[in-house]
Write a structure and sequence with these properties.
- The chain is built from no helices and 32 strands.
- The protein has a 4-stranded antiparallel β-sheet with strand order 1-32-31-30, with no helix packed on it.
- With about 450 residues, it is mainly β.
Length: about 450
């Protein structure tokens, strides 16, 4: 009923993300429609540091690191480097000619912005033309790679630990074929200083949306070939869906997404050399085409090479019913929990809003938001062992009824799972967090 208020302030705080620090603590980031900014009510960039006990290390309500005038938001990039510094990439309108730029900042555990002036950071993406959806990752050799939509194409830039550009003045551009648009989906570090990037390719609103990926070396070379890797090109992604992925710890990436016609969730593992571990176009978590399976979350066990996929299972009818199901795949993509997957929560009349998942040494957690009526959401969780036994049946993570959105989940270096979300229990939206211990109890 209580949860931890990370940012409980006037106006709305939105799009929270949470990541672990090497010391067992966490960073939480968000956009804050701060009425006290200059200009007032622009969506500003905020960050808070929590220790392993959930105690805020900085001032109440977090620190504002970019006072923006943006009246709306897109997605943004967030990562933590090996030294415990927070890395943020976002769209920035604080420019003399009002052209939106891509800005990145590096923040120390003490809350100090380490690059450039405290107000500005670095801007690898400047100039006219559309820019969108910036992503950022700390590489294994201490550098940083940032990527963004640049017109119809993608641009990526690598920076040193001090912020110097390493891929020339303009970075590396991945150019879309004529008539196509590339939209970045996710970006994470690979092996040997590389970075893995994924994106959605489309020729228009009604055309198929396919999922592509590539790995860039420390010098910017395309290690998976100039034609890229087609993670999914056998149908179409949902319009507006940009699937995330997790890395496998060996230079590869594990993807989860859902297609349309039918609405079906799939998984794929791309190995470090760019080859497919699963059959081409991935493997569905369930072959039950009488149900829809959407909005999946993927996690990975590097010790066994197992992939876990959880999704929103929907039974269409006069009254739509929804539940949570999951599937385990072995290293070749063979399903381990039956052709229809494992039922984590059976059908109810409540809508499933978000599905998130992380892998723990004892098996994956899945956490989701359930809404019986508008604005009356509850967050639930469950834990499943690798055999498919539900060791913690669905339990409540946040029971105070309110509208909850943008649920995010991570696990700390000490084995503590933490969820964050935007919650309107008081006003337009505040940021709350909750820890989940390995035995599925809450609170320290």
């Amino acid at each position: 009923m209580a949860n931890l208020g990370v940012a409980v302030k006037p106006s709305d705080q939105v799009q929270p993300k949470v990541l672990p620090r090497p010391d067992g603590g966490f960073y939480v980031s968000w956009f804050d429609n701060d009425p006290n900014g200059n200009p007032p009510f622009g969506y500003d960039v905020y960050l808070q540091s929590l220790d392993a006990n959930g105690v805020a290390q900085w001032q109440a309500g977090g620190i504002r690191f970019a006072d923006l005038g943006m009246s709306s938001t897109q997605d943004y990039g967030f990562d933590v480097d090996a030294d415990g510094n927070a890395l943020l990439a976002f769209l920035d309108d604080r420019n003399p000619h009002k052209a939106v730029a891509v800005t990145i900042i590096k923040v120390s555990p003490a809350g100090v912005q380490l690059w450039g002036t405290p107000a500005q950071g670095r801007q690898p993406g400047r100039g006219p033309g559309f820019k969108g959806n910036p992503k950022i990752t700390a590489t294994s050799d201490g550098s940083i790679v940032v990527g963004w939509i640049n017109g119809n194409n993608l641009t990526l830039q690598r920076l040193s630990s001090h912020g110097g550009r390493q891929w020339g003045t303009h970075g590396v551009t991945i150019t879309a074929p004529a008539g196509q648009t590339y939209s970045i989906a996710d970006l994470h570090a690979g092996d040997d200083g590389s970075a893995i990037v994924s994106w959605v390719s489309a020729a228009g609103f009604s055309s198929p949306k396919i999922l592509l990926a590539n790995k860039l070396s420390s010098t910017g070379a395309l290690l998976w070939g100039s034609s890229h890797v087609a993670v999914f090109d056998g149908g179409s992604l949902q319009f507006g869906n940009f699937p995330s992925f997790v890395t496998d710890g060996a230079g590869g990436a594990v993807f989860g997404w859902y297609e349309v016609s039918p609405l079906q969730s799939r998984a794929q593992h791309i190995l470090g050399d760019g080859t497919e571990a699963f059959p081409h176009n991935g493997v569905p978590g369930s072959t039950n085409t009488g149900h829809d399976q959407v909005n999946p979350a993927v996690s990975y066990d590097p010790a066994t090479g197992s992939t876990y996929l959880f999704w929103d299972e929907i039974l269409e009818g006069p009254l739509t019913n929804e539940g949570i199901s999951g599937q385990k795949f072995d290293s070749t993509g063979a399903v381990q929990w039956g052709d229809f997957g494992l039922v984590v929560q059976g059908f109810t009349s409540s809508a499933v809003i978000n599905v998130t998942s992380v892998f723990t040494p004892a098996g994956p957690y899945v956490v989701w938001s359930s809404e019986p009526t508008f604005g009356q959401d509850t967050i639930y969780g469950a834990k499943i062992d690798p055999s498919g036994t539900i060791v913690c049946s669905p339990f409540t993570v946040s029971s105070l009824l309110s509208s909850k959105s943008r649920l995010d989940l991570t696990i700390s270096s000490l084995g503590l799972t933490v969820a964050v979300w935007s919650d309107d229990r008081a006003d337009g939206g505040d940021i709350y967090a909750q820890d989940i211990k390995p035995d599925c109890t809450l609170g320290l």
